[in-house]
């Protein structure tokens, strides 16, 4: 059948295995829910639709209100909250404590020897998440016979950042236009908004920043607040809160004040009133995301104030309503000779402990900018008195847009598991993110989070590249559990999105897991960064003036000296790492050019000279894309023709562009190295 990718990983394909189908039919013949609410109704709708599509049978549904007892004898699947003693009695106290406000328990229980599946939670949203989990088990063909599942999110804020402009374009978006149709809002709630919310809820995403961090003040006007309110209302049953970016100069631009100085009483009052207005229209508003004093955006720096002054002023306005501020640490100046990698840390580290309790600092995974590989951002672990959240980029700004197949699950995993050593070995970034800054606070008040810059647009398949969907999916799963595995997430996604056939899932999972390193190889191997074409960031551009500051290639060698003889960025890391990175021999091979300037003829850990190694990585990357093409070709017939053919074309294009990258970079660097290509690297362009 034709498949255009619209249904993402929620395809609910018919289960062809007769035995499994029969077992499911029996196990899910009826559903009972206790009490109703928009969220419970969404769960029920999803279950009924999913079960029907997968096993061809609509379950009988009944609901119980108040304290009426559940008829365990006749019902197979029970969705109930744990405030019912009979339900809570099925679980241990540890289980009940763990799951908090968004978690859930799924358990097979026996009443009169008849097995029932119980989905239980403290909240309605927990029940919705649990329902999606049950559906996932079916989508991945797992037995429902003896379930005993405890799930809860390790991070509280799991947010998509949309860089959507109000005119419908998306900054760094490669999948069409913005999903939000401002012109027809608030009157028209497109089905697509609901499907967006379903997809997010299915992976536990619980927030969306609707507009670009390069913000327009218009989004804070009454006209737009009313439109935003309609979206917020539509998303609410799915547990998704809406946030907006706040342009720091809004008091001047909208309020006609003379200043936006965060310490000016009129400015303070303006934000207070604005926030009151926002909550009047959007009672469950989440808060602000702010890009300030960065890349030309206005900010507290314009008035000689600190980031803490700016963030705390907004936070004070939001606090009475439970709102938060996510303040970005992405700041740098293109000062001659300055190492951009150091600037975020230099500016924010001294402010540790100065931010109010409803402020989080949102830091990119690396100190520069969403590169295929960077050292990790040294701010993680270095701000023990500040709520820190991670910012990943799901949209592939530096990864070949929506043309290249790059599974980012591997990247998310790499950074989340990085050891910062800040509290000794084992202080992973995942731990830093999960840790409560105030250990005494209860689950409701802990402020932890992660954000991903969305890769979603109006393309029929949402993400442009069919495999781009995997990055949205993986982001949600890692947000739920930062120690999740990229491998099993890829497997789940493939099964739900394409087929459970192991002849497809195993080889393509392997292809996905290797794909990020392949892109690193043909774009920026060995710790190089920012060689993309200036401003556009598509294709190679190591020759641009802006790239030179990142690769430092000269007649002697290549790479940036970030040790004490250079910019000394190494000293921003914990001592154990600083000394590791200071020594070429102990620097991870994949970061050597990030930390060192290395002579062309110097032997590196590959066993070859710097120059030959560099060239070999570029050639290797191209070969690997050819291998990906071959593997994909051998999948013909295993999945629908539409997506098979589309990915075939995309991989062909990726192969061409990998060569473009290889040839551009190798030829460019050869001007400096003045060395011949290794003998096995003579393949013509
Ligand atoms: O990655 C860079 C992008 C800009 C972006 C900026 C940021 C929204 O090239 O387009 O602006 O980062 O993260 O603020």
Descriptive overview:
It contains 21 helices and 16 strands. With 685 residues, it is of the alpha/beta class. A hairpin with a 2-residue loop joins strand 4 and strand 5. It is globular. The two termini are 39 Å apart. 4-O-methyl-beta-D-glucopyranuronic acid is lined by residues 163, 171-172, 213-214, 291, 295, 330, 369-370, 397.
Question: Could you provide a short overview of the structure?
Answer:
With 685 residues, the protein is of the alpha/beta class.
Task: Explain the layout of strands and helices.
Elements: H1 18-27, E1 30-34, H2 38-55, E2 60-64, E3 77-81, H3 85-88, H4 93-98, E4 104-111, E5 114-121, H5 124-139, E6 148-151, E7 157-161, H6 191-202, E8 207-209, H7 222-235, E9 241-245, H8 250-253, H9 265-281, E10 287-290, H10 307-318, E11 324-328, H11 340-348, E12 359-364, E13 387-393, H12 409-416, H13 429-434, E14 449-453, H14 468-480, H15 486-497, H16 502-523, H17 545-551, E15 557-558, H18 575-582, H19 592-595, E16 598-599, H20 610-633, H21 641-673
Parallel strand pairs: 1-2, 1-3, 3-5, 7-8, 7-14, 8-9, 9-10, 10-11, 11-12, 12-13, 13-14
Antiparallel strand pairs: 4-5, 4-6, 15-16
Helix pairs in contact: 2-5, 9-10, 12-15, 14-15, 15-16, 16-20, 20-21
Bound molecules: 4-O-methyl-beta-D-glucopyranuronic acid.
4-O-methyl-beta-D-glucopyranuronic acid (GCW) is lined by residues 163, 171-172, 213-214, 291, 295, 330, 369-370, 397.
């Amino acid at each position: 059948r034709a498949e255009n990718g619209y249904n993402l990983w929620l395809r609910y394909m018919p289960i062809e295995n007769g035995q499994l189908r029969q077992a499911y039919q029996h196990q899910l013949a009826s559903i009972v829910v206790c009490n109703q609410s928009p969220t419970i109704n969404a769960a029920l709708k999803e279950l009924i639709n999913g079960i029907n599509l997968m096993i061809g049978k609509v379950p009988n549904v009944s609901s119980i209100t108040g304290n009426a007892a559940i008829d365990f004898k006749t019902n197979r699947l029970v969705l109930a909250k744990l405030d019912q003693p009979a339900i809570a009695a099925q679980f241990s106290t540890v289980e009940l404590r763990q799951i908090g406000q968004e978690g859930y328990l799924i358990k097979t229980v026996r009443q009169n020897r008849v097995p029932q599946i119980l989905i239980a939670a403290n909240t309605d949203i927990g029940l919705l998440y649990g329902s999606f989990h049950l559906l996932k088990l079916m989508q991945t063909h797992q037995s429902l016979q003896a379930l005993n599942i405890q799930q809860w999110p390790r991070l509280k804020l799991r947010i998509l950042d949309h860089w959507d402009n109000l005119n419908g374009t998306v900054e760094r978006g490669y999948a069409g236009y913005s999903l939000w149709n401002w012109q027809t809002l608030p009157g028209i709630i497109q089905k697509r908004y609901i499907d967006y919310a379903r997809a997010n809820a299915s992976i536990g995403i619980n927030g969306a920043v609707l507009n670009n961090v390069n913000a327009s003040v218009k989004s804070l006007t009454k006209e737009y607040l009313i439109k935003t309110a309609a979206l917020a209302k539509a998303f609410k049953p799915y547990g998704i809160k809406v946030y907006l970016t706040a342009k720091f100069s809004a008091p001047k631009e909208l309020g006609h004040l003379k200043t936006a100085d965060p310490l000016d009483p009129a400015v303070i009052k303006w934000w207070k009133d604005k926030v009151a207005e926002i909550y009047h229209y959007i009672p469950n508003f989440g808060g602000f995301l702010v890009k300030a004093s960065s890349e030309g955006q206005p900010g507290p720096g314009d008035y000689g104030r600190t980031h803490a002054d700016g963030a705390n002023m907004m936070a004070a306005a939001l606090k009475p309503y439970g709102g938060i501020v996510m303040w970005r640490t992405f700041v740098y100046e293109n000062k001659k000779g300055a190492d951009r990698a150091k600037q975020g840390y230099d500016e924010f580290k001294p402010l540790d402990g100065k931010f109010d309790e409803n402020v989080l600092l949102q830091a990119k995974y690396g100190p520069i900018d969403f590169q295929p590989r960077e050292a990790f951002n040294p701010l993680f672990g270095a701000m023990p008195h500040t709520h820190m959240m991670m910012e990943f980029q799901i949209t592939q700004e530096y990864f070949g847009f929506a043309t290249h197949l790059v599974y980012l699950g591997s990247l998310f995993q790499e950074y989340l598991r990085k050891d910062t050593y800040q509290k000794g070995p084992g202080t992973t970034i995942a731990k830093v993110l999960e840790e409560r800054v105030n250990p005494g606070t209860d689950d409701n008040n802990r402020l932890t989070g992660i954000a991903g810059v969305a890769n979603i647009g109006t393309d029929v398949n949402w993400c442009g590249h069919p495999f781009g969907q995997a990055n949205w999916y993986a982001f949600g799963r890692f947000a739920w559990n930062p120690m999740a595995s990229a491998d099993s997430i890829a497997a789940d996604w493939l099964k739900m999105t394409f087929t459970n056939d192991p002849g497809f899932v195993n080889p393509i999972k392997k292809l996905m897991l290797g794909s990020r390193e392949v892109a690193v190889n043909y774009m920026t191997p060995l710790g190089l960064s920012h060689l993309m074409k200036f401003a556009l960031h598509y294709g190679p551009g190591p020759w641009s003036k802006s790239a030179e500051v990142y690769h430092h290639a000269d007649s002697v060698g290549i790479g940036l000296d970030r040790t004490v003889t250079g910019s000394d960025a190494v000293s921003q890391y914990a001592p154990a790492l600083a000394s590791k990175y200071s020594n070429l021999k102990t620097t991870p091979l994949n970061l050597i050019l990030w930390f060192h300037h290395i002579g062309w003829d110097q032997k590196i850990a590959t066993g070859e000279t710097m120059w030959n190694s560099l060239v070999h990585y570029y050639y290797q990357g191209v070969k690997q894309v050819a291998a990906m093409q071959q593997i994909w070709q051998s999948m013909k017939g295993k999945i629908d023709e539409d997506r098979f053919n589309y990915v075939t074309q995309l991989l062909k294009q990726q192969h061409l562009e990998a060569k473009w990258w290889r040839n551009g970079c190798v030829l460019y660097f050869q001007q400096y190295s003045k060395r011949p290509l290794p003998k096995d690297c003579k393949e013509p362009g």
